[in-house]
Amino acid sequence: MNQKTIDLKPMGIGDVLDYSIEVFKSNFKTLALLTLILYLPWVFIESLINGSVLGTNANLFGNMLKHILEGDYNGYLDEIGTYGSDSFSMSILSNMTSFLNMCYGITIKLVYNAAIIKIAYDYAVKNQKQDFSFNNVKNNIKEGFGFMPRMMGNAFFFNLIVLGAYYISIFAAIFVIFFALIFSVNLSFDQLSAGVLIVFYIMLFALLILAALVCTAFFWVKLVFGANAVVCENASVFDSLKRSWNLSKGYFWQTGLICLFGFILFFVSGNMLTAASLFVSTISKALFVLLYTVTNILNSFLYPFIMIFITLAFINIKIKKEGLDLEVKVQSMFQKQFEVNNSVNYNVGYNANNNANYNAGGEYFND
Predict the structure, then answer these.
(1) pLDDT of 212-247, one tens digit each?
(2) Burial 48-60 (b: 16+ CB within 10 A, else e)
């Protein structure tokens, strides 16, 4: 580990972004090797499978649209028949990939996340820049496996709460719409009133779905720092959830904006490249699978950035809410004083030994 000079201070979103770039660049080799070992193999396999499924579907729908525009309805029906025969196998393959992705997401990927969080936290708070070596990366992975049981517990309850909030909200929205429709069936309307009522139900459905998304986002923001609490503060599963909930209290909107910014910065930009490659599927499915896979591989090396970004947001709230910067400065002062005292004691002892040896030598010479 190398010591680095750093001055922790409260940061805005722009400062968090700048500092995230610095941490990412300074530890890029280590993060890249972690990605090669823990993340890239699965990304490669998943990209090949999903690319094949997406390429097949995009090619079929592209041909359907082409036949419709050309007025070739026989060709359109043939494409539907082809889609029907392929859809079952594609569905099984897609579902299998989703299941494997879920298994990877609650096991090895959590080790990967923990290693990234630890590197970012040590760099920002403990002033330690990790030297690039295979042994250090091996130690990072070993430490990540040490956090794995609690990371799995945190991930389980995080998804249970967030997804539970989402599905309950969606169910409530459908429930309200269903009973509103039953109530309206018994009423008599003219044509204009019926049209207004349809527009009203569409707007109501959109608002309820939006409310469901807001409810889901609320719990996501409140619990997003759970993994950071596990790695950075050695918190237990339930304590990590409580810690994240309490830490975001009073900083909900700031946390939400930072998370939204990080989402737009990484996921949307990465998916834009993926979406752009879909146009190639009309030319060649093999070329699309290749571009899709290459795009996801490049995005995988950028994935650590979003984890660093969230970790620095976690540190920033600790600075603003708990004075982490002052705590680090005090610890640094005590550490320096401790080193000075040790140096003084060493010099005093060394000089005393020299004097004793000199006097003993003199007495011996005199004798």
Answers:
(1) 888 888 999 999 999 999 999 999 999 999 999 999
(2) bbbbbbbbbbbbb
Cα–Cα distance between 171 and 10 in angstroms, integer?
41
Alpha carbon distance 174, 205 (integer Å): 8
The C-alpha R_g of the chain, in whole angstroms, comes to 29
Which sign, positive or negative, has the C-alpha torsion 334, 338, 341, 347? Answer: negative
Ranking 49-58, 83-92, 248-257, 346-355 by mean pLDDT, the lowest is 346-355
Tell the residue number behind the tokens 């041909």, with chain if given.
63
Instruction: Count the residues in the chain.
Output: 367
Q: How far is CA 112 from CA 108, 117, 208, in A?
A: 6, 9, 37
- pLDDT band per the 50, 70, 90 thresholds, residue 169: confident
User: With the C-alpha atoms ordered 357, 363, 365, 367, is the resulting torsion angle positive or negative?
Assistant: negative
pLDDT value at position 142?
A: 95
Q: Domain residue spans in the chain?
A: 2-322
pLDDT for the residue 344: 52
Q: Report the 3 state secondary structure along 115-134.
A: HHHHHHHHHHCCCEECCCCH
Burial status of residue 69 (CB atoms within 10 A of its CB: 0-12, 13-18, 19 or more)? exposed
